[in-house]
């Protein structure tokens, strides 16, 4: 395959602008949007929507590939990149969670190697998200991370991770409850990392210190928390009220109730971000599986992933980012264009990617043609419209 940046063949894509709902022709050359023209739509033309590519800041795995398995291969990284592209994700952040130090380094090296091998992978991976190991050891905030490998912030250890990744770590999720967290966060920021608060049991003062030191995001706010919390203050209210913090949420319909999503969207507005947080079982058919994190797990027909025999204990998310966009629209929590931006422009802006331009001239031509509602079949008074001759009543009315 030709390296992406050498593909200079001009291209015209026609679609309904996802924001303005006007038919447009989008001109592309050398990977960049060069022009957008209003289009006269023929009456019988059915154009798809056109919008900016989705950006997923948190992907633990998908379609059988696991970013937390030391046996991850370059081919596996290429395969997951292609699986995600098919679902509209043009930029993603492989997410490596708490593990043995050597295992983390091995996985980071493999992701780096995959970027060196494939220009497509290199252009789709915006950076690596290191989620842990400097998180809370407390039950609840710890979530599914292995407690044995949780540790206080350690700059030389992080430096060894950064080196193993070829400098590709761009985002780190940590808990500021450890002593020395503020200095560690300042060091991360100086080295160009975006710092997120997550898997935390931090006090309000510790959260304030983290924000003052440069933390800019709450990772999957509302999840990885204690089952019971003091009504106030607590770390959810504190992060919700911090205007300096963006918030990512898992909007798969199982991790957070609609009321919580609504409150987070209202509070964070342009800083509300959808993530998939998908695991390797994401995109696979319903059934029972053996998961490296949860053991025996069940993926239901509805798309919920839970511990086998325990439907209330989630075992990660099994849905791609597009599912979250649809959930948010379906629940009436945002319009389609706003939901789409929560999964594209909002994360790009926070990560300062060129993709933050969205569907504008000069932005990278990462584009998705989609239909918000795909009609499979239509019924009239209970009659399948493809077999009209069997439907006497409709014929009588004509
Ligand atoms: Zn997490």
TrEMBL record:
Gene Ontology terms for molecular function: metal ion binding; N-acetylglucosamine-6-phosphate deacetylase activity
InterPro entries membership: Amidohydro-rel, GlcNAc_6-P_deAcase, Metal_Hydrolase
Domain Amidohydrolase-related: from-to ranges: 50-382
Cofactor requirement: a divalent metal cation
Binding residues for Zn(2+): 131, 199, 220
Keyword Repeat (UniProt): no
GO process annotations (BP): N-acetylglucosamine catabolic process
Enzyme class label: hydrolase
Taxonomy, superkingdom: Bacteria
Keyword annotations of the record: Carbohydrate metabolism, Hydrolase, Metal-binding
EC numbers, comma separated: 3.5.1.25
Cofactor detail note: Binds 1 divalent metal cation per subunit.
UniProt cross-references to SUPFAM superfamilies, sorted A to Z: Metallo-dependent hydrolases
Active site: 277
Cross-referenced Pfam families: Amidohydro_1
Binding site for substrate: 144, 223-224, 231, 255, 314-316
Family statement drawn from the similarity comment of this UniProt entry: Belongs to the metallo-dependent hydrolases superfamily. NagA family.
Name listed for the protein in its UniProt record: N-acetylglucosamine-6-phosphate deacetylase
Organism annotation: Spirosoma linguale (strain ATCC 33905 / DSM 74 / LMG 10896 / Claus 1)
């Amino acid at each position: 395959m030709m390296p992406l940046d050498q593909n200079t063949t001009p291209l015209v894509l026609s679609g309904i602008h996802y924001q303005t709902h006007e038919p447009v022709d989008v001109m592309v050359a050398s990977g960049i949007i060069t022009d957008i023209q209003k289009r006269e739509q023929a009456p019988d033309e059915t154009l798809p929507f056109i919008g900016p590519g989705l950006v997923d800041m948190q992907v633990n795995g998908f379609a059988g590939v696991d970013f937390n398995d030391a046996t991850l291969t370059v081919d596996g990284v290429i395969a997951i990149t292609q699986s995600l592209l098919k679902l509209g994700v043009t930029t993603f952040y492989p997410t490596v969670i708490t593990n043995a130090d050597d295992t983390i380094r091995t996985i980071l090296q493999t992701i780096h190697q995959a970027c060196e091998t494939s220009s497509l992978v290199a252009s789709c991976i915006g950076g690596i998200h290191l989620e842990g190991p400097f998180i809370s050891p407390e039950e609840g905030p710890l979530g599914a991370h292995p407690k044995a490998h949780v540790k206080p912030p350690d700059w030389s250890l992080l430096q060894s991770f950064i080196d193993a990744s070829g400098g590709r770590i761009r985002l780190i999720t940590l808990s500021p409850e450890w002593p020395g967290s503020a200095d560690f966060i300042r060091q991360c920021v100086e080295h160009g990392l975006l710092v997120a608060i997550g898997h935390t049991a931090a006090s309000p003062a510790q959260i304030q210190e983290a924000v003052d030191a440069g933390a800019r995001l709450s990772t999957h706010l509302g999840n990885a928390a204690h089952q019971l919390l003091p009504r106030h203050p607590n770390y959810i209210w504190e992060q919700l009220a911090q205007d300096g913090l963006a918030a990512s949420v898992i909007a798969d319909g199982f991790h957070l109730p609609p009321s919580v999503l609504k409150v987070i969207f209202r509070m964070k507005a342009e800083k509300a971000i959808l993530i998939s947080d998908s695991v390797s079982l994401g995109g696979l058919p319903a059934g029972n599986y053996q998961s490296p994190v949860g053991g025996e797990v069940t993926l239901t027909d509805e798309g919920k992933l839970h511990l086998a025999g325990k439907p209330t204990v989630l075992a990660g998310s099994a849905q791609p980012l597009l599912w979250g966009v649809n959930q948010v629209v379906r629940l009436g929590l945002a319009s389609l264009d706003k939901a789409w931006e929560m999964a594209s422009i909002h994360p790009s802006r926070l990560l300062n990617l060129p993709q933050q331009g969205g569907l504008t001239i000069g932005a990278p031509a990462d584009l998705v043609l989609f239909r918000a509602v795909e009609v499979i079949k239509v019924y009239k008074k209970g009659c399948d419209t493809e077999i009209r001759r069997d439907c006497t009543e409709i014929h009588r009315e004509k």
